[in-house]
Design a protein that fits this description.
single chain, about 325 residues, alpha+beta, Nucleotidyltransferase, domain 5, Actin, Chain A, domain 4, 3 domains, 5-stranded mixed beta sheet, 18 strands
């Protein structure tokens, strides 16, 4: 007897994660596709493709088909999804014909963007495709009581967008989506180094700087890091030393926008649910939750306890997979 497999996909700007029922997270790779522009042949997907970023000859480009949490290159996204689903089926020893797939979408995405995601997933041979809003998936993955009439606040800081949502009784009561995420912070670091030191660094270096010495606006013991880049004056390689306090200043304006989105969402919360928020606090998920000092900073700014989810990077994917249990109960756009 053939039972169809159930899969949850977190189609993120920075990473694509796949959750399989009974197996947990079976794949976690960067959302990057490397393609040969002369032959249109796909050379690599995921980690292998990310390792090529900024290091390829002119005829090979490594592209990220998702921007700000939505599809910017439809064909590339389809190719990436097909490769990923093939990889997963091989890994699990399944030749599943028609899996049921749940994919998460940003809460601010338009119906056109949602339709593009459904079509891309359907083209990979899915039996049914359901969409779930990212904050709801993050809350389920972080083991929050989403089905109960209790307010839970989730801040999902992803690669392209930050989603802030108050969830109660399986649905989103109030939400805000801002196009600020890990990518934007990397971009700010690149601009800062270029402006202050006349040195050009790549995306991967910027990401490394953010992880090691990036800080939310809190007091901390200063850290330093040596960085190599290209001197824009003479074109030669150059090594510079960066301090965590200057990176902190470079990131501050964007992080304040994130705080504003959280404040706005809390302001629109029904009075009955405000009491729950004081008890339950705010839960951070997504890669951005790992930024140094962000928990302490937000706690001080909004005077409400802030918690980081158990595995912030995987929360959305886990929640997407688990949501299949009560897909009918959750109030969402479900396209079958």
């Amino acid at each position: 007897m053939w039972t169809s497999t159930e899969i949850g996909i977190d189609l993120g700007t920075a990473n694509i994660l796949v959750y399989c029922k009974g197996k947990g997270i079976v794949l976690n790779e960067p959302s990057v596709v490397a393609i040969n522009t002369d032959t249109n042949e796909v050379l690599a997907v995921g980690t292998d493709a990310k390792n090529m970023v900024g290091k390829t000859p002119a005829n090979i480009i490594a592209v990220r088909p998702l921007r700000d949490g939505v599809i910017s290159d439809y064909n590339m996204t389809s190719i990436m999804l097909k490769t990923v689903i093939k990889k997963v089926s091989k890994q699990l020893g399944l030749s599943f014909r028609k899996p049921n797939i749940v994919v998460c979408t940003p809460s601010g995405s338009t119906s056109v963007e949602r339709r593009a995601i459904v079509d891309a997933v359907r083209s990979c041979g899915a039996k049914n495709v359901h969409l779930i809003e990212e904050p709801v998936a993050a809350a389920i993955g972080a083991d929050l009581p989403v089905e109960e009439p209790i307010a839970t606040v989730v801040v999902d800081i992803g690669g392209g967008t930050t989603e802030v949502a108050i969830i109660s009784f399986g649905g989103v009561v109030s939400s805000n989506s801002v196009r600020i995420g890990g990518d934007k912070l990397d971009e700010l670091i690149i601009q800062y180094v270029r402006k202050s030191y006349n040195v050009l660094i790549g995306e991967r270096t910027a990401e490394q700087i953010k992880i090691e010495i990036g800080y939310a606006p809190i007091e901390h013991n200063e850290l330093t890091m040596e960085v190599r880049g290209r001197d824009l004056v003479n074109g030669l390689p150059k090594t510079i030393t960066l301090h965590s306090t200057e990176i902190q200043k470079a990131l501050k304006a964007e992080l304040l926008q994130l705080l504003e989105a959280l404040r706005l969402t809390l302001e629109h919360c029904p009075a009955e649910l405000s009491g729950d928020i004081v008890d339950q606090g705010v839960t951070l998920t997504g890669g951005g939750a790992l930024l140094n000092g962000i928990q302490e900073w937000l706690t001080a700014e909004i005077s409400v306890p802030v918690h980081i989810a158990h595995s912030p990077l995987e929360s959305v994917a886990i929640g997407t997979g688990r949501s299949l249990k009560f897909i009918d109960k959750l109030q969402k756009a479900s396209i079958s």
